[in-house]
Write a structure and sequence with these properties.
This protein is mostly helical. 78% of the residues lie in helices and 0% in strands. The protein has twelve helices and no strands. Helix 4 (74-106) runs antiparallel to helix 5, helix 7 (141-165) runs antiparallel to helix 9 (182-217) and helix 11 crosses helix 12 (268-274). It is globular, with a radius of gyration of 25 Å.
């Protein structure tokens, strides 16, 4: 016996709304679970395995030291100094890196002239240039920005160049067949297609830039998270050392999420296709 069909009456059918917790992606829950597991393991290992705060401070001790440094305004000074240095160095490196990548991808002559210098400078250990930058720019913020700029610019440049150089030729020919100009082909085809590569370069630049902050502040700095890590290591203040490390790690996570948000605004179709 067939089931009776529902009659359309024009009255909307009310469906229960999913709760906010159920709407969270499973990947988010897995990330939260992994963080909580590491927190528990950290605390247990520090209190039952190592048992020496000089070598491995418990997370509760790190939290207490964070509140102490925050209350004395010392942590704010270090965070602001490193944030200012990183932001200036990263923004300058991003502009120069993307611009140079565009030039190399659109001009064979420029690529031939720039390629050996990019390869040589990219393989140069920047930490060895730290003392030299101090001689050139002094112990102020300029030498720190120079270090951060050099460690960030090349991942951005190379990824921008590769992304712009590996665009599907069929897409370019299709755009030209419809009468698109060179600038329109770049803005409507090449740049959107290269955007994932550029964002990947920026994300690599974030990681390298945070390392550059620490390296730069090891030489003649008076404030900053790298300076906090250096002084804490010299005075055997392991909890304060972990404070600087965790603040840098958290800053990296925030910066990467900001880049993901920017990519969603510039290329929303990529996330629609992947279901993110």
């Amino acid at each position: 016996m067939s089931q009776p069909r529902a009659v359309a009456t024009g009255t909307p059918v009310l469906r229960p709304r999913r709760g906010r917790l159920r709407s969270v992606r499973p990947s988010t829950w897995r990330g939260i679970a992994s963080i909580l597991a590491v927190i528990v393991l950290w605390e247990v290992a520090a209190r039952t395995v190592v048992k020496n705060p000089l070598f491995f401070a418990p997370l509760t001790a790190v939290a207490a030291r964070t509140l102490e440094l925050w209350g004395s305004q010392e942590l704010q000074v270090h965070m602001w100094t490193s944030f200012f240095e990183f932001t200036l160095g990263f923004v300058l490196a991003s502009i120069v890196g993307i611009g140079a990548g565009v030039i190399m991808a659109t001009s064979a002559t420029a690529r031939d002239l720039m390629d050996p210098w990019v390869s040589m400078l990219y393989s140069t250990p920047i930490i060895a240039l730290g003392p030299l930058f101090i001689l050139w720019f002094g112990i102020g913020i300029s030498s720190k920005i120079a270090v951060i700029f050099l460690v960030v610019v090349f991942p951005v440049l190379l990824n921008a160049y590769v992304g712009l150089s590996t665009v599907d030729p069929g897409l370019i020919e299709a755009a030209r067949s419809f009468g698109a100009t060179t600038s329109q082909v770049f803005s409507k085809v090449r740049f959107p297609a290269a955007l994932p590569f550029i964002v990947t370069g920026l994300r690599l630049g974030v990681a390298r830039g945070l390392v550059g902050v620490v390296v730069a502040e090891l030489f003649g700095a008076k404030a900053g998270l790298g300076y906090l890590i250096l002084i804490s290591a010299q005075t055997f203040d392991t909890a304060a050392l972990f404070v600087g490390v965790l603040v840098l790690a958290f800053s990296g996570v925030v910066a990467v999420e900001v880049l993901k948000w920017i990519e969603r605004q510039l290329a929303p179709w990529r996330f629609q296709e992947s279901g993110e």
